[in-house]
Amino acid sequence: MEKPALEYLHPGLRPYVKPCLPFIIGGASGCVATMCIQPIDMVKVRIQLAGAAGQKQPAPFALFKHLLKTEGICKMYKGIDAAFARQLLYTTTRLGLFRSISDHIKKKNDITTLPFYQKCAVGLFSGAVGAFIGNPADLALLRMQSDNSLPVEQRKNYGGIISTIVRISRNEGIFSLWKGASPTVTRAMALNVAMLATYDQSKEVLTPYVTSKTGVTVLSSAISGWFATVASLPFDYVKTCMQKQNHGASQYSGVIDCFVKNYRQGGIMRFYGSINAYYLRIAPHVVITLIMREYLESILMPSR
User: Could you tell me which residues the Solcar repeats occupy (predicted)?
Assistant: First the structure.
């Protein structure tokens, strides 16, 4: 006999908790993945900042070794509170909305799977909403990660996420917290479609041929991680360039200006200079997030 969902809760609470589960599961999965890949994210940001400054972009493993030696493992986790805040805002929203909307459409139309174009549409929408909500935490994270790469006299010496957001708001205005929101939202839309739509599609294709459920999950998440990397990296590069700018020291007048200037300086490969580090950051994050989501759903939503 199938175990009823949320049987450990009072029956009166279940109707209120159940709609929240996709969001809780999404945020928790994102936080676990972030804890694992935060040092790789630091390497990715430093490579992108070097490219934006016109410097030679270092090799990921050489840079990781250098940062570990000169700054230590603790510095590699600088901004982890902002990274968690971003996951709780961004990933909670995008994964929660994607699962909730997908389930609603399937229930309404009495179908078991969504057509691929509908998966893409839901992915675009949920990614855009999540990115807009999470942009302040994303901006704070990037400022904290890039601070140590500046000359000592130019460093802001940011503290935690709250103090960083307060300082940015006070010095640059409250709306500056959404600096780089346009490429952030575009990146999230590209990443979400590539990650979630291709993941669900890959699972449907692989399930008849792979007997292990875990194997299907791992293979599908690895495929979606590759597509997410290629689709979102150019937007991630522009986002990094835009968000690192401090008030009064803007190098770019806008997103288009940033894209055009970087393209003229290095061509399309300028945006893919950090692809190795970015893939090492995105692919494990996608794999861990999706595996954790499947695991938590099997525990908390067994009747889904």
Answer: 17-104, 114-205, 212-299
